[in-house]
Amino acid sequence: MKEHERFSTEFEPALHGENFKVDPSEKRVKPLDGKQGELESVRDSVYSEPALAGTGAEANLAEWIARKRRQCSWSGNLAFLLLAALLSGPFAVVGAFLSGQYGVYGLGYAILFAPIIEELLKQSGMIYVLERQPYRIVAPWQFIASAGIAALVFASIENVLYTCVYVGPEDVRSWAFFVWFRWTVPTTMHVTASVIASLGLIRIWRKQLADGKMADLSAAFPHFVAAMVLHGGYNFIVIPLSILFIQ
Questions:
Q1: Distance (Å) of CA 179 to CA 48, 135, 158, 222, 239
Q2: Contact 138, 158 (CB under 8 A)
Q3: How far is residue 87's CA from residue 6's CA, in Å, rounded to a whole number?
Q4: Predicted confidence band at 57 (pLDDT cuts at 50, 70, 90)?
Q5: What DSSP character marks residue 29?
């Protein structure tokens, strides 16, 4: 078949009385139920077409968010966001320890990869809310508060592991100073880095409301990078200095 015959509608089999053969793989495909969530309906709406941007169609998502907000209570929103923050902390701990490296690769992991994993996972709860239930967010401070809580939960679990499992009084020069250090300096670093990353989520949220489009995580990239650099820089300085604690 020539190229012009392959792409021209004049040569469609149905126009020449030829039998149409169904792809055999279609017989094994599960039938679609036709159901679609509210958010997916808004996302796939014709009003979300880029060609309609600036014509008033961008209000479609904003109207959906406003309508859903009216159906939610303040107490429900706060409880939902608190749950997202409380789950993000332990989730980040699990992710960090499952991905950890030891021995000769330990320092490289702590400086390069641990900050990436931890900072992303500490924001995972709010990323889910932002992508799936953005109507529960009504003010920027919710991102900051959630980031702070998630970081405190993460740091607390990490501090307990270090002071109760990994290190004992016989392993360090001053147990009191080691405990004080763990609960102040690393905790402050975790909270600071998380708050910086949350500023990126605020940027996504504001962009979403302004553009009337689905959340674009790339808008948070600069803030996440800044949080990861702070975290990695802290590890780069403090880990070699840990020899000062060791007996």
A1: 54, 41, 12, 33, 16
A2: no
A3: 55
A4: very low
A5: S
Token digits for 233? 């820089």
Helix, strand, coil share of the chain (percent; to 5): 80, 0, 20
* Phi-psi domain of 215 (left: phi exceeds 0; alpha: psi -120 through 50; beta: other): beta
- The secondary structure of residue 134, as a DSSP letter, is G
Decide if 81 contacts 136 (C-beta within 8 A): yes
Sorted by sequence, the CB contacts under 8 Å of residue 178 that are 6+ apart come out as 163, 167, 172, 245
Confidence of residue 113 (pLDDT cuts 50, 70, 90): confident
Answer yes or no: are the C-beta atoms of 122 and 158 closer than 8 Å.
no
pTM: 0.76
Alpha carbons within 13 angstroms on the beta-carbon side of residue 246 total 6
Task: Please give the structure tokens belonging to residue 77.
Answer: 């929103």
How big is the chain by its Cα radius of gyration, in Å? Answer: 26
pLDDT at 208 over 50: yes
Between 104 and 4, the higher pLDDT residue: 4
Is residue 42 over pLDDT 50?
Answer: yes
Q: Tell me: the pLDDT tens digits for 66-86?
A: 888 888 888 888 888 888 888
Higher pLDDT, 168 or 199: 199
Hey, CA dihedral for 21, 22, 23, 24, is it positive or negative?
negative
* Alpha carbon distances (Å) from 82 to 89, 103, 129, 216: 11, 37, 11, 23
- In this structure, the dihedral spanned by the alpha carbons of residues 114, 116, 119 and 122, taken in order and rounded to 10 degrees, is -80
Answer for the pair 234, 208: CB distance below 8 angstroms, yes or no.
no
